[in-house]
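Note to self: keep these together.
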Amino acid sequence: MLQHDYLLEIIAEFVQTVMNALRHARKNGDRESLQELDAAVCDLLDLDPQLALRLSPDSLVTMMLLSGMGDSLAEYVAYSLRMAADAYDQLGDSQTALERRAQSQAVAESFGCDQDVVPHEFEAFEAGLA
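Structure:
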């Protein structure tokens, strides 16, 4: 129970960080906000930010598997990476967008996440983007 509550708290903090970063990046065209989002993904996975998001999609999945938390966090990671890819595209950074999209797809496929489903914590945020 304590571990479950801790995980929920970590996810809630992550969701808030991702939403804030995406809002700011979209509103202000701010690349630094997207770097904050990238760092949040690394923090969630307890990976070194200098290394983690430079990993190939398969290597990122392997690191998630090794962490033992991949199953619990995959839908949040896949969604966040997908949203980051869209934001990087808007900023004209198609290379980083391509990398994030490939990572998102690899995470979703490896952990059985439906890329069309928005994690419930992000539903109101998604509705506000439309």
